[in-house]
Amino acid sequence: MDPCVYLFLASLLSVTSAQFIPPYTEDCRTEMYPPNGPTFRGPVSWYTVDLDLPASKRWTAVITEKKTDLVNMIQAIKDLANAFVPSGRLIELVDITLPLMVETLPNPFREEIKGIATVSGVPLGEVVLFNIFYEVFTVCTSVVAEDHKGNLIHGRNLDFGLFMGWDVKNKSWIISEKLKPLVVNLDFKRNNQTVFKSTNFAGYVGMLTGIKPHTFTLTMNERFSLDGGYVGILEWILGQRDGMWMSFLTRSVLENANSYDEAKKLLAQTKLLAPAYFILGGNQTGQGCVITRSRILSINILEIDLKLGRWYVLETNYDHWEEPFFLDDRRTPAMKCMNQTTQANISFKTMYDVLSTKPVLNKLTTYTTLMQVSEGKLESYIRDCPEPCMPW
Ligand SMILES: *[C@@H]1O[C@H](CO)[C@@H](O)[C@H](O)[C@H]1NC(C)=O
Ligand SMILES: *[C@@H]1O[C@H](CO)[C@@H](O)[C@H](O)[C@H]1NC(C)=O
Ligand SMILES: *[C@@H]1O[C@H](CO)[C@@H](O)[C@H](O)[C@H]1NC(C)=O
Ligand SMILES: *[C@@H]1O[C@H](CO)[C@@H](O)[C@H](O)[C@H]1NC(C)=O
Ligand SMILES: *[C@@H]1O[C@H](CO)[C@@H](O)[C@H](O)[C@H]1NC(C)=O
Question: Whole-prediction pTM value?
C-alpha cells in the first residue's frame, strides 16, 4: 500500500472518536487580518541567535526562556513512546543510541544540539530525537505569490503532530498543542547584522520557514514517497552518510546562499536523506518555485509564469501533477481561495485569509507565517482551529 494511504488510514483510526465528517470545508475566509478571533491563539516572540558565538552557546537565551515548554514537549513524546512500547525500552534506546548519533551530525548542528541539551537539562538523545522528528511527520501548506507590482509574498501553515496522540476530550493533537508554546521567531545575526530570519520551534536547529531579507524566502514541506525518508535515515544510522538532512540544508541555504538562483541550485542538486518539497521565492518578478525532490535529485520545478497566468505556486504534500489524496485535499480549497483573491488583491491580509480557511487551517496547524522579501518582513501567528475542524 502507498505509505501515505497507510499513514492516513492509521491516523483515521486514531481519531474515530472525533465527530467530524471529512472533508470539512468552508467558504474562503475574509477579514481575518490583522489576526483576531478564535483561530488566533497569540503572537510569536522574537529572539536573536548570534552566529558569532560558539555553536554550543548560540541557543542559550532561547532555551533558558523556553526550557519548561521544551521539557513538557519531550515528556509528551516519551509518554506516547511508552504508551506504544510500555516497557520503556523505546526511550531507553533513544537515550543510549541517539547520543552516539549526534557525533555523526555535521557542525554547527552537532555542537548546537549539544548546547541545547546542556542548557535545558534534557538528555542529549532526546534532544536529537526532537530534532529528527520533523523530518518525518510534517504536513503543511506553502504558497508564493506575485502581486501586480512584482513583489513576492510567501505564506505558510506549519501543520505538525499527525498520529501523535489524539486528545479525545480537547479534540486536539497532543503534540501539536505542546508545540505551540515552543514557536519562536529567530533573528540570526553576524557582526550584529541580520543574516536571515525564521519561524521555528525552540530546541530545533534546522529550518522549515525562513527569509533572507531582500534576497529570498524559503519553506520546506514533507513529501511522502516510496523512495522514502526512512530508508535514508536508516542508512545514516548504519553508517552510510552521503545525504544531507533536509532541514539542515534549508538552514545552510538561508545562511550561505546569496541569491535566488544560488539557493535554487543548492536545493535542487544537494543529495538528501529523504524526499521533500522546497518552496522558494526570490526578489524579482517571476522568481517563485516549488522544487519537488527525490533523495537524489530534483524531479520537477514548477515556477511562477505570468505569461501563462500562473501568478502563484502552491504546495501541500502531494506532487502537483497528481491528485492529492482524497482524504487530505488542502490544495483545492487553497487554490480556490487564491483564485478568488486574484493577483490584483494579493497581500499579507488576503494571504492570511487563504491560510485561515478550513481545511487549509486544521487541527495540526501550529503557526502561520507571512513573508515579504522586498521589505525583509516576517510575521507569524500561533493558530487554533475550533470545532468543527478537520483533524488534518
Ligand atoms: C485540554 O484543554 C484544557 C482546557 O482548555 C487544558 O487545560 C488542558 O491543558 C488541555 N489538555 C491538553 C493535553 O492540551
Ligand atoms: C547592534 O545593533 C543594535 C541596533 O541595530 C545597536 O543598538 C547595538 O548597539 C549594536 N551592538 C553592537 C555591539 O554593535
Ligand atoms: C536581489 O538579489 C540579488 C542577489 O542577491 C541582489 O543583487 C539584488 O540587489 C536584489 N534586488 C533587490 C531589489 O533587492
Ligand atoms: C485556479 O486557477 C488555475 C489557473 O487558472 C486553474 O488551473 C485551477 O484549476 C484553479 N483552481 C481552482 C481550485 O479553482
Ligand atoms: C479587490 O480589492 C478591491 C479594492 O479593495 C475590491 O473593490 C475588489 O472587490 C476586490 N476584488 C476581489 C476579487 O476580492
Answer: 0.91
